[in-house]
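Request from the bench team (R.T.):
"We need a structural guess for the complex before ordering more pyridoxal-5'-phosphate. Sequence and SMILES attached. Just send the tokens back."

Command: build protein-pyridoxal-5'-phosphate structure.
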Amino acid sequence: MNNLRTGEKYSLNTTLIHGGNQIDERTGAVNVPIYQTSTYKQDGIGKNRGFEYSRTGNPTRKVLEDLIADLEGGLAGFAFASGMAAITTVLSLYKSGDRIIISHNVYGGTYRVLDKVFKNFGINYTILESEDPEYLSKVITDDVKALLLESPANPLMSITDIRAFSKVAHEKGVKVIVDNTFMTPYLQRPLELGADIVIHSGTKYLGGHSDLVAGLVVVNDKEDAERLAFLQNATGGVLQPFDSFLLIRGIKTLSVRLDRHVENAYRIARYLESNDDVSKVYYPGLETDPGYAVNSKQAKNGGAMISFELKDGHDLNRFFESLELINLAESLGGVESLICHPSTMTHASIPENIRKAVGITDGLIRLSPGIEDVEDIINDLDHAIRESRV
Ligand SMILES: *Cc1c(COP(=O)(O)O)cnc(C)c1O
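Reply to R.T.: structure attached below.
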């Protein structure tokens, strides 16, 4: 079991670099070695040096797991082969007959695994249709065991009041799980706001370089930590040592990268807002955004993800094909700008009627601004928008 160490002693910026005790005790190496081993020599029957088998535990992974626990201010961290492996393992805490409430524009893969996998095992879900905590209290039936939130939720960047929702959920004995991928602990710390479990796709801002796929979980309750450790070992979707190393390395520069991502996002959102070809901008960092006030209470700023729609009279194919710098690609949070078309890409696994009902239109575009020079990003967008006019 992990204990809070660096995270209690130092500020977050320092913990990004020193959290999780990264010094190698044996050699003094300032970076944790990649312990590329499946097993560990035991000194006698029942006598090991803390590691037995790398599904159960690996020293490189352990540093990452302690690091994310330090960063989120939790008791224990767990690293998985992907964000979806992390989500699947957390959902495995529940059993047939249990019900989980999810945000209405939750990550497409989360919806898909609930609808196509866990439903077959008798775990049901309810989609939360409103960001009003009053509404939540009405849909919590006796079988509800957990509430799974994202704020901002993707791709409309809608904001949920994590503190208010946690309060309502806890009054009814419901656990609160927050997917904090879009914010990271640098911008938002859900456990401090009342959540019980935090999930990350480490593939995005934490890794930050579009070069790995990983998932992380942090819990702050001893019983949850024991059950998660059991499930991680029992189901086995663990992160490999090399990818653990890469993720630790990515996390070291999280704050400097994110400062630039956010600065660029703000400039780009202002540009889009003032562009006559753009009908809608979704960015909780803009004061005009409906989520601005709540987001400002719970997060450091609006993060770096933006969605927008072009007015009628634009050809979307032509828009995407005219981009020269920004890559049309799934994923987000890398140093390079990425753009996608949610209705056919990231959110294609959500049925069309649900997509339409929550506002994921076919004209919606999602942008993950990178840390390139912001003028270059804006010029690329501006050129593609002009080219797409029909
Ligand atoms: C990408 C993503 C996931 C899934 O993570 P993978 O690493 O792709 O498996 C989960 N939640 C959110 C919010 C994401 O953006």
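Two things stood out. Residues 254-273 form the longest helix (20 residues). Residues 105 and 153 are 6 Å apart (CA to CA).
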